[in-house]
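Notebook B, p. 112. Complex prediction, attempt 2.
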Amino acid sequence: MPLDEFSLIETFFRRPTAPAAGVLAGIGDDCALLDGGAAGVLAVTTDTLVADIHFPARASAFDIGQRALRVNLSDLAAMAAVPRWFLLALTLPAADEDWLRAFSAGLFAVADAHGCALVGGDTTRGPLAVTITALGAVPANVALRRSGASAGDQVFVTGALGGAAAALADMTQTGACSAADTTLNARYWYPEPRLREGVALRGIASAAIDISDGLVADLGHVARASGVAAELELEKLPLCGAALARFGSDQTRDWALGGGDDYELCFTVPTSRLAALETAVRAGRLRALPVGRLVSGTGVHARDGAGRSLALTRTGYRHF
Ligand SMILES: [Mg+2]
């Protein structure tokens, strides 16, 4: 007999453990009631992943489940928030128990790794889509915003770029649901939400964003929100080694700039806080790879190694 919505939730999503800390009302009511307590501010984000648009529909359900939560937690990382709770809205073509078992195992593997509890959601029938709403705690006044940067700030990223787009290109070429190269595959399917890094940047970064759409687009959001321009030094861009080896530097650089799905943080630091950043880096709290700086003006611009200006496009760059 097919599972109805309530037995589906009971079987696969209600956990036998006691309610997580701070959950005044979890699964089973119209709303979850959550006590932020001394933690203060709740950061709330939601993202929908649609099959064959955001991920290959035939991919492993475990991978789909765990990646859906990772990309949502990445948004919490960008605000320097600590994950606490999440809600899941699942649209399914059918209540396939094997698929659901694997999906929920993937989902909870990431949830447990980050101490993040499922507190509610919805299930409907339709083309496969996964919507997650994640809630995180961050003390008042230390949340990182896109709007806090100023001209003169240095721009950094937390890791190498271009690998996720390279994996996607590999999967598109081969028709497979995973990239043959395990490093590339991990860059797409298992992006590490930079939560530890986000917290380490409290009081240091003037602005931050996670790189979901490519460095140019996402740094562009910071520049616009902060009323400044960004200048990237293309020679400094940290490029994913596995993507470089497989696809070469021009293609990998284009993917770093415009490919997306890398989920590293891009953040800005005023000159006065560079020493504090260096201390955090030395203490192993994060990687900070310099990629450019903010200047007055608008938009995102780039220079090559010889100092020549390059025109950036959404998908890469063009020489003038
Ligand atoms: Mg984001």
